[in-house]
Predict the structure.
Amino acid sequence: MKIKTILSIDTSCDETAAAVTCGRCVLSNVVYSQIKTHQPWGGVVPNLARREHQKKIGPVIEKALKQAKVNWPDIQTIAATQGPGLSIALGIGIKKAKELSQKYNKPLLAINHMEGHFLSPLALDNKGQGPINKIKFPVLGLLVSGGHTQLVLMKKIGKYRLLGQTLDDAAGEAFDKVAKMLDLGYPGGPVISKLAPQGNPLKYDLPIPMARNQSLNFSFSGLKTACLYKLKKIPDKQKNKRFLQDFSASFQRVLVHSIILKLQLAIRKHPFKQVFLGGGVINNQHLVNEVKKTAKINKIQVFLPYSQELLTDNAAMIGIAAFYKAQRKEFVKNIDELDRKPNLCFS
Ligand code: KG4
Ligand code: ZN
């Protein structure tokens, strides 16, 4: 049987997400964001995340089926994010997927959330339109989110090599932590990226992370500390809107510069013709513009998903990874043994 229609579930962090895909076409993509629940605490609170996932997982799945105009008999398989992510959050999605798989007698697929981010540009809208005509292997994945910052080489779909990743904080985490220091609320990445275009990116002298390091790894915690020290020296009365714009622009400039240096290094070390961008931080226009400039000079094509909704956490991207995994017939063999893998990595 050719697997086409898949119900996918993602509960890897603070979004409860379900989607229905048919092949690479996204028929529905429902995301319930828990941001409001976590906002007062300035970050994701694991127990609250679990409670919210438990409450919303059922209604979110129902909505995904309804929006896709499909019923259970139309669904051929169920996919769930196995990891990486927040352990108690992942558990809710996996438990639900197992229950549904047994209740409706559907095979199950366990998906790597980061493979979902990587393959998100391959998603097609409900008219079958998408950005990519032809994949030219190997493809580089630049995956930048709140939990991860990775450079991954894809030799073919399903075969990956992790070239580099962050040694400490992820880029999105650095955005959020610096935003917190500036009292910009949570999550602060989008706020910094809105303030930055009005500011002077050269106003504050901040270090470019890992500038002389020849590996493809990233590190953002030193930059975070440098921001903290710099901010301590600035009197509160000088912290007006102009200051926020200048500081956001300066921080964004060095963080993006650090990612671009690693991209240039990856181009030199591992020739490739296409780069796929995925993860919430790819919403940052400055980052995307700089990636495109570097790619153009090196005659590399850049692809993003057809919609911004596929950048931040969602289940449609899980459906795309699941579609290819179903083609490879990599179904879960023993459902009872399936468990979350909070530290799941590209092997
Ligand atoms: O991919 P995602 O939804 O969740 C994870 O898998 O981690 O990414 C969320 C992250 C947050 O850290 C958020 O601040 C960041 O993406 N983010 C941004 C922007 N939009 C979202 N960071 C910088 N600029 C943005 N425009
Ligand atoms: Zn993610």
